[in-house]
Design goal:
Blueprint lengths: L1 E8 L2 H8 L1 H14 L3 E9 L9 H11 L5 E4 L2 H4 L3 H13 L3 E4 L9 H34 L12 E3 L4 E3 L1 H15 L4 H10 L12 H9 L6 E4 L13 H4 L3 E4 L8 H17 L13 E3 L6 E6 L12 E6 H4 L9 E2 H18 L1 H16 L1 H26 L5 H25 L8 H13 L5 H11 E8 L15 E8 L1
Parallel strand pairs: 1-2, 1-3, 3-4, 9-13
Antiparallel strand pairs: 5-6, 7-8, 10-11, 11-12, 13-14
Helix pairs in contact: 7-8, 8-9, 13-17, 15-16
Length: 501
């Protein structure tokens, strides 16, 4: 009789308990010799769970069984093959149809009788129960760690280093994460934020590049704002990578870990992300300046619109995007001409350039900011040291509260003091990275980057850049509606006032 052997280990602990692959194979071979069976194939599964049959060697074994390669399947123990009663039934039914026998080298089964099938089902049920019970115990332990504000294990998030007891900020990664959020909040989408970080060499660990998915995952992770999220399995039993809170029941608990940004900042960029999801890349994103353009004559906003002219032969020109005064659109007396988007773009970008040129200290100031970052490394390290001290102190308060050594009121008061001190230190860190140039360094940075990257931005990113940078741009024209305006004529529009956010 031709026999096939299937063996499996899922953890190193099973090796220590005597379930090593070599031990299983030796026992199965000895059993096959005692039965005078010829071993024709051995299926070896390493590092795989028996929770289902979605395993490479199981699939290969089932394929070989269908081709009649063997007459009996031999395992060391039933739970090496499966711990699911449902999967066991499916396998036994399949083996019956293919006239294949099933044997265990350490357990006695006879699947040809009703009693034998009952016995094997009881064993499989116990194995399934054992696996589920173990999973519940492990999950309960991790949930308790999270409730106490401790790390439950797993991959340490970018930006942190884990020493076995607490998290520490990695300074270089902290800088990248702050820049990541700044870029996104400046109006870039996930894709453009990833592109800018990669182009500047601000990559992930092991020189891995940023992807739009990783940017989104990082922004959505509350650990950077001082909270641990746990329990992200969806209804299909899968672990979602993005939007975990929407796809599964999760628990979120306060942690004592140092933060990359505040909870208010977390809520702010989550609001922006949800807004992008809600509106998506709709047609309205084609109008980059909606919401910021104002009519100098009546004060109304300018709305986006599209029209298409026809040639003499009746064919259409390419659609033209324009902006119309709301009061003109409603017939309420305003005579502001339509403003083509290409003209508005030229005016606004020329204004940005003139603002940058008029700020004589901007170019030198940016260099000074970078030089300051290098020269003040010692100061920044001292500030980071103070952050680590606060982290250790938080951990002590957390422990004392968990052990009922201090009341909840005391715990919250001490945590609030630490939070306030942490915000002061983080503000000092931000100040250490720039000189006071008499203007907002973030606004300068945004204007410089807008001027640099504008040609490569997609429609939605352009629109969000505009709405992030500008509160309003007031437009006037030296002509009125109907005074000879046509497709190829540029009317004398001009900007009368610009208000930045």
């Amino acid at each position: 009789m031709k026999a096939a052997i299937y063996v499996r280990v899922s953890t190193s602990a099973q090796v220590e308990e005597g379930y090593s692959l070599d031990a299983q194979i030796d026992r199965c071979k000895a059993y096959a010799v005692s039965q005078d069976w010829e071993i024709v194939e051995t299926y070896i599964e390493e590092g795989e769970s028996a929770k289902d049959l979605n395993r490479a060697e199981v699939k290969r074994m089932l394929s070989d069984a269908g081709e009649g390669l063997f007459d009996v399947l031999l395992v060391y123990r039933l739970d090496r093959l499966t711990r699911s009663v449902r999967d066991l039934h499916a396998l036994l039914d399949l083996f019956d149809k293919q006239n294949i026998k099933f044997r265990s080298a350490t357990e006695v089964y006879d699947t040809t009788t009703a009693m034998g099938r009952l016995f094997i089902n009881i064993v499989a049920s116990l194995a399934e129960w054992e696996r589920a019970n173990l999973g519940e115990r492990v999950r309960f332990g991790k949930e308790q760690l999270v409730r106490e504000g401790n790390w439950p294990g797993g991959v340490v998030p970018y930006g942190y280093a884990w020493d076995g007891e607490t998290m520490h900020i990695v300074p270089e990664e902290y800088t990248t994460l702050r820049e990541l959020r700044r870029l996104y909040m400046a109006g870039n989408g996930l894709r453009n934020t990833a592109m800018y970080l990669n182009s500047r060499g601000m990559k992930r660990r092991d020189d891995a590049i940023w992807s739009p998915t990783m940017i989104g995952y990082t922004l959505e992770n509350p650990i950077y704002a001082g909270k641990i999220r746990f329990g992200s399995k969806d209804k299909q039993g899968k672990y979602g990578f993005r939007k975990k809170g929407d796809r599964a029941d999760v628990m979120i608990s306060e942690s004592s870990f140092p933060t990359i940004y505040s909870w208010e900042e977390f809520e702010e960029h989550m609001e922006r992300m949800n807004k992008r999801v809600k509106y998506g890349n709709s047609r309205k994103a084609d109008y980059w300046f909606v919401g910021i353009l104002r009519c100098a004559r009546c004060g109304s906003k300018l709305k986006g619109s599209t029209y298409t002219n026809r040639r003499a032969d009746g064919t259409k020109y390419e659609p033209i995007r324009v902006y119309k005064c709301y009061n003109r659109e409603k017939g309420q007396g305003c005579n502001m001409p339509m403003l083509r988007q290409v003209v508005a773009e030229e005016m606004i970008m020329s204004h940005v350039t003139s603002v940058l040129l008029s700020q004589q200290e901007v170019a030198a100031g940016i260099d000074e900011i970078q030089a300051s970052n290098r020269n003040q490394a010692a100061d920044q390290e001292q500030l980071l040291k103070e952050l680590r001290i606060i982290t250790e102190r938080r951990k002590k308060w957390q422990y004392m509260f968990a052990e009922d050594m201090i009341s909840e009121t005391d715990f919250r008061a001490r945590k609030r003091e630490d939070d306030e001190q942490e915000m002061i230190i983080k503000k000092a860190l931000e100040d250490a990275r720039s000189y006071d140039l008499g203007v907002n360094p973030t606004t300068i940075d945004n204007l410089v980057e807008l001027n640099k990257y504008w040609p490569n931005l997609d429609n939605l990113s352009r629109k969000e850049w505009m709405q992030t940078l500008f509160d309003s741009v007031v437009i006037e024209c030296d002509q009125e509606t109907g005074e000879g305006a046509h497709r190829f004529k540029t009317l004398p529009f001009r900007i009368t006032e610009v208000i930045f956010n």
